[in-house]
Amino acid sequence: MTSLPLSGANRPLTGIGLMLVATFMFASHDAMSKYLSGFYPIILIVWARYLIHTLLMAGIFLPQSGLRVLRTKSPGLQILRALCLLGVSLLFTAGLMFIPLAEATSVIFLAPLLVTALSVPLLGERVSPGQWAAVIVGFVGVLIIVHPGGSLFTPAVLLPLSAALCFSFYQILTRRLSEVDSATTSNFVAGLVNTLVMSVLVPFFWQLPSFSHGLMMLALGGCGMAAHLLLTHAFRHAAPALLAPFGYVQIVFAGLLGLLIFAHTPDLMTLSGILIICLSGLAAAWQSRR
Questions:
Q1: Mean pLDDT confidence for 90-103
Q2: What CA dihedral angle connects 262, 231, 109 and 188, to 10 degrees?
Q3: Which of 3, 113, 165, 237 has the greatest number of CB atoms lying within 10 Å of its CB?
Q4: % of the chain beyond a pLDDT of 90
């Protein structure tokens, strides 16, 4: 991919538009994963997602850059980052088998708050009292969603919570690796490592998909790949601090897709918890920007 002109770094409306399309594609990816998990083993679904992702990355970047796109200055951290992302995929997809789309998506959005908390011991960063308050309020939002007596008060909620923890480590490693490797290298290596790992496991869970479901698996990988590329371009057009709030629109898209495809409507208590998580995440981003 060629570098964008310098003027492209200050196009906030373009960046916001790309961000919104990317969040819709991420939500669509999750909706397809939830649907397919009702028919096929999770290992097969995640394998198909990473296989298509890696093949698309190879088709786009290998002709331009050759094998040097895979050269990394920190292979150990790259492999660890890839495995964290694989953990997100497996745990979150497993959670979608038991938890509605909007609720699971809102729980995974605890990751930015967890990054704030973990950046102190792992990155040596300073966290203000306001940011700590946002982290605590975010967890209160999760407790409201999975309140005792509610339909989500089951061990299954630990799956998206664990996925959020894996995602926070993934983001911290991404921050560390951005100092030595390009985003293209990191994404390509992650896709390749996870494809190889899942290719070892998938023969034990193999199930031939139907034609329509096979097309959906192709769309799953294409959707995830396109969303990541759109996200990358969005940050080239606008500052991360400006775009961060629009990432939470993914929860809205997840709720709409959950309603349209799975006929699920969150109750008032759940909506309150989702709103609290969104507001706490925005507050943490605002504190960080200050």
A1: 91
A2: 90
A3: 113
A4: 32
Query: HEC profile for 120-154?
Result: HHHHCCCCCHHHHHHHHHHHHHHHHHCCCCCCCCC
42-65 vs 183-201: helix axis angle to the nearest 10?
Answer: 140
pLDDT above 80 for 123? no
What single string gives the DSSP state of each residue in 81-111?
Answer: HHHHHHHHHHHHHHHHTTS-HHHHHHHHTTH
| pTM exceeding 0.70 | yes
- Specify the amino acid at residue 63: P
Residue with tokens 């992650």: 190
Determine contact, residues 243/235, Cβ cutoff 8 Å.
yes
DSSP assignment, residue 40? Answer: S
Task: Give SS3 for 51.
Answer: helix
CB neighbours of residue 145 within 10 Å: 27
Is the distance from CB of 281 to CB of 248 less than 8 angstroms? Answer: yes
Residue 106's closest CA among 263, 280, 283?
Answer: 280
Between 3-17, 106-120, 139-153, the lowest mean confidence (pLDDT) is in 3-17
Q: What's the pLDDT tens digit per position in 139-180?
A: 888 888 877 666 777 888 889 999 999 988 988 888 888 888
The C-alpha atoms of residue 36 and residue 49 are separated, in whole angstroms, by 12
Q: b/e map of 31-58 (b: 16 or more CB within 10 Å)?
A: bbbbbbbeebbbbbbbbbbbbbbbbbbe
**Dist CA 27 CA 31 (whole Å):** 6
| pLDDT the model gives residue 9 | 53
